[in-house]
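I trust your eye. Have a critical look at both lines of this record:
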Amino acid sequence: MVRALIVAAAVVVGACAEHPRVTGAALSVLGAYAAEPVTLDVAAVYLTIRNNTGEADTLVGVETPIAAMANLHRMVGPSGAPQMRDVSGAEIPAHGQLQLRPGGLHLMLMNLVTLPHAGDTVDLSLEFRHAGTIAVRVPVLSYLEVGERAAVGSGQEQQ
């Protein structure tokens, strides 16, 4: 019943497409964006998840209608030859946050069924161990825009 209340309690999508913000009763998703893919192979999604509760939660899955598979990945290895590895889950600490950003933990959309372009949006369903599913609409940014965000600082919260 708590899960149903959390999911039903409100998924509010911020009005500004440039800095989307999605808030559930327990979790907030901030600054989400996808890098414009150049092929149908893969696309990366970056975002910050804030836990507004006193209990840790875990991101355990992601789904999207635009890809046959979607996984949580982490870049590992030396800076000259990093590799991506699947991650089964990522914890969002109580009253803390989890950042998914270039060069680190991120969402990887694989075997795309459609090629999104800069200016489009991608719908995601993020699945959490306790909070359940949160729907997120993510803007697709050009590589130039992604680079500009990285230059500003990936640690900054966007609201």
Notes: DSSP finds two helices and twelve strands in the chain.
